[in-house]
Amino acid sequence: MDKETREQIALIRYKLISPVLVEPGRVQNEYFRTQAAIAYDFPRYGRRTVKVSTMKLWLKKYKEMGFEGLKPKVRKDKGRPRKCSSHLLDVIRINCKAYPHMTVKYLHEKLIKEGIAGEPSIHYSTLLRIVKEENLLRFGKKRKDIRKRFEVDHVNDLWMCDFMHGPSVLINRRSYKAILCAIIDDHSRMIVGHAFAPSETVSSLTMVLKEAFGAYGVPKRFYVDNGASFSSDFLAKSCALSGISLIHSKPYDSPSRGKIERFFRTVRDRFLPGIVEKCTLEELNGSFAIWLNDDYHHRVHSGIKERPLDRYHNSAGKVDIQRLTKAELNEIFLVRHERVVNNDATISFKGSIYEVPSAYIRQRVDI
Hints:
Elements: H1 3-17, H2 25-35, E1 39-42, E2 46-49, H3 52-65, H4 86-98, H5 104-113, H6 124-134, E3 159-171, E4 174-185, E5 191-197, H7 202-216, E6 221-224, H8 233-242, E7 245-248, H9 258-271, H10 281-294, H11 308-316, H12 326-332, E8 338-340, E9 346-349, E10 352-355, E11 364-366
Parallel strand pairs: 3-6, 6-7
Antiparallel strand pairs: 1-2, 3-4, 4-5, 8-11, 9-10
Helix pairs in contact: 1-3
């Protein structure tokens, strides 16, 4: 409550008690009983009646402290929300400092899940106000350009794929940056392919794509950016053999791949904060698969207002999903390399030496 409002309230209180400031007690009581039946408009509080005992208290405070005694008291906890203790406020600050990129929604769920949200639990709007007032989390800047929403009609009509740089992991006791390759179905928001790998290569991409084909069938369109892995001849040939339309977005137009980008934000907000530092790549992939199954696929998606798993199954029963045999998949994703056989009847491939029949010395061979 600001200073001006407090003074306005004190002035109304003074006007109520001023007629009987110097009158005897009997006259004061009769006057107060008369005024108690009348409603008055107070700033901030609105229109209300005042009890006789309250007016007597105002009169007593005025005689002891003067006009200042009629002003509403300043809260002792000024600057701190009423329903947030100092301990809970410290807990909120510590969590925000540890995970500055998480959302307020995730923070609220985390506090409740860990049983440290207070009793009763702090309300989401209160937590949001605290975080914003103290600037505890790093809120991203909102885009000013307009992007129109779109969505295909059925599952496997359109898949989107991209890479996301994740946490550091240990591989053979050495630290590597884990990079997530994920494929999302546009209609259902299901993640049909995923894997963390130590590199952003076409090999990592095609392994994820092959597993997605085997589990969910073949899509009609595959929408990607213009990165080196997505522009490779091997991916183009694999899509050609599969009968898929390979579509590249415009350069530097990440909003056109908004659904996969929004999923990566969810990964950063809801999955990565719970990951132990320096875990192994196998542990990271295992935890991610569990999180997808237990959290993402079974939570109501804000964009479709239903669970991705439910929408996928509802749509999958209405369309014919093209599936390839294991032999066809192996042929489509068969990697071929050309080598010249050395004079000692050997070839080198990825740091290893292989022996071949001597008849192929100085000849070019496909492996």
